[in-house]
Specification:
alpha/beta; 392 residues; binds ligand FNR; FMN; eight-stranded parallel sheet
C-alpha cells in the first residue's frame, strides 16, 4: 500500500501505474530490433494471445463483511524458503539491450523489493557481477543446458552460481533452440550474435569454456570474438534436447532445489515427481517458443491437480497485473514469475523502473485480495473457491 499512499500524496511515479501501457511506452524508447525481440512471440502469436486471454476467463468473486486485522499477508513458502511476496523476476537474457545497466539494475531492484531474481544463462552480465548487485537478496540461477559432451562447462557454471550465492537452479526445457520468431527474422536480428556480445557474458568469463575454445580454435577468445560468440551460442542453444534421465547429472552436481521450467503437460509433470525435482514452472516462455499452444494458465489447474501436493508448482506466461497473480495463485501456483513487465520497467527507468513495476504489481495484488475479502495469498485463503469461470 506504500505505492498507493504515495500516489495519494501527489508524489508522481517515475512512469504510469497502468500496467498495460508499459509495453508501448517502452517501445517508444527502444530500437525496433530490441523492442521486436522483447515483445516478439512464436509464429502467428496464437500462444501469446491465448496466454493473456486465459486470465479473463476466470473471475474473482469478492466476499463481503470479512473482518480482518489489516492488509492481506502476501508471504509464501516456496522451495523450502519463506518469502514475503509471491512473485519473482523471471529469467530474461541480454538485459543490456534494454538498458545499459542491464541485469545489475534489475537484480538490485529485485533485492530492494524483496523479490527473488532469477538470472539467465543468456545474461549480458557475469554471474559474479549479478551476485554483487543482488547483495543479500534471494537469487536463483537459470540454466540453458549444454549437451552432455559439454558437461564440464555445465559443472563450471553451476559451481560459479553456487559460489556466488544462487540458491536454486531453474532448468529451462523449452529453448534448446530459439523459436520461430517472425519479428526477429524480419529485422534480421539475433541478440546473441550482436557485435557487442551482450548474450555471452557468462561464456566469456568462464574458465572452462575459455580453455575449450583455445583447444578447438588454437587461439584466445579475444583474438576471434565472432567465433567465440558463435561457439557459446551453439553451446547453450545446441538445437537438441536432453532427456529426463540426464537430470540425474544435475542433481548430482547441484546441492539445492532444482526446478524444471517450461512444463505444459500433466505427463511431464508426473515424470518430474518421479525423478525427484523440487519444483516446476508451468510456462510456455511467454508464447515465444511454440505457436499453436495452450495458454499457460489453461493447463495450470490440471497440472496442479496431478502433482501440486508432491512438488512446488510455479507459474508464468502472461502475468500483467495484480488480479492475474491472484488468479494463478488461486488455481494452485505457489508463485508467479513476471517476465516482460519488469523488463519494460528496466527500459523506462533502470533500477527505479524495475522497482516501480514490482511495487505496482504487489500493491495492486494486495488491494485486489483485500477488497475481495481474501486474507492471505496462502492456499487456505486463496484457492479455487474464490473464482468462477466466466462461461460457466
Ligand atoms: C525470456 N524468457 C527467458 N526464459 C529463460 O528461461 N531464459 C532466458 O534467458 C529468457 N529470456 C527471455 C527474454 C525475453 C526478452 C523474454 C520476454 C522472455 C522467458 C521468461 O523467463 C518467462 O518465461 C516469460 O517472459 C513469461 O512470460 P511474460 O511474463 O513475459 O508474459
Amino acid at each position: 500500500t506504500d505505492v498507493y499512499q504515495k500516489g495519494l500524496k501527489y508524489q508522481r511515479p517515475p512512469f504510469t501505474f497502468k500496467p498495460l501501457d508499459w509495453e508501448h511506452l517502452a517501445g517508444e524508447r527502444m530500437s525496433a530490433d530490441s523492442y521486436g525481440y522483447v515483445i516478439g512471440s512464436a509464429g502467428s502469436g496464437e500462444t501469446a494471445r491465448k496466454n493473456r486471454a486465459a486470465f479473463e476467463r476466470w473471475s474473482i468473486v469478492p466476499r463481503r463483511l470479512v473482518k480482518t486485522d489489516g492488509f492481506p499477508d502476501l508471504s509464501v513458502s516456496v522451495l523450502g524458503q519463506k518469502l514475503p511476496f509471491p512473485i519473482a523476476c523471471a529469467p530474461v537474457g541480454v538485459q543490456k539491450i534494454m538498458n545499459p545497466d542491464g541485469e545489475v539494475a534489475a537484480a538490485a531492484a529485485a533485492a530492494k523489493e524483496h523479490v527473488p531474481f532469477i538470472m539467465s544463462t543468456a545474461s549480458s552480465t557475469s554471474i559474479e557481477d549479478v551476485a554483487k548487485a543482488s547483495g543479500d537478496g534471494t537469487r536463483w540461477f537459470q540454466l540453458y543446458w549444454p549437451l552432455n559432451e559439454h558437461n564440464d562447462i555445465t559443472i563450471s557454471m553451476l559451481d560459479r552460481a553456487k559460489k556466488a550465492g544462487f540458491t536454486a537452479l531453474f532448468v529451462t526445457l523449452d529453448t534448446y533452440i530459439l523459436g520461430w520468431r517472425p519479428s526477429d527474422m524480419d529485422n534480421g536480428y539475433n541478440p546473441f550474435l550482436r557485435s557487442d556480445q551482450v548474450g555471452v557474458a557468462i561464456g566469456l568469463t568462464d574458465p572452462v569454456f575459455r580453455s575449450h575454445f583455445k583447444q578447438k580454435h588454437g587461439k584466445e577468445i579475444e583474438e576471434d570474438m565472432n567465433a567465440a560468440v558463435a561457439e557459446w551460442t551453439r553451446t547453450v542453444f545446441p538445437g537438441r534436447s536432453h532427456s529426463f534421465e540426464d537430470v540425474k547429472f544435475l542433481q548430482e552436481h547441484w546441492k539445492g532445489p532444482i526446478v524444471l521450467k517450461g512444463i505444459q503437460s500433466v505427463e511431464d509433470a508426473k515424470t518430474c515427481v518421479e525423478i525427484g525435482v523440487q519444483g516446476i514452472v508451468v510456462s510456455n516462455h511467454g508464447g515465444r517458443q511454440s505457436d499453436g499452444g495452450n495458454s499457460s494458465l489453461g493447463v495450470l489447474p490440471r497440472i496442479v491437480d496431478a502433482v501440486g501436493d508432491k512438488l512446488d508448482v510455479l507459474f508464468d506466461s502472461g502475468i500483467r497485473c495484480g488480479a492475474d497473480i491472484a488468479k494463478a495463485l488461486a488455481l494452485g501456483a505457489k508463485m508467479c514469475l513476471v517476465g516482460r513487465p519488469y523488463i519494460y520497467g528496466l527500459v523506462l527507468g533502470g533500477e527505479g523502473g524495475v522497482s516501480h513495476v514490482l511495487k505496482s504489481l504487489l500493491g495492486d495484488l494486495e488491494l485486489t485480495l483485500h477488497l475481495a475479502g481474501i486474507r492471505s495469498s496462502l492456499p487456505e485463503h486463496l484457492n479455487r473457491s474464490v473464482l468462477v469461470k466466466e462461461d460457466d
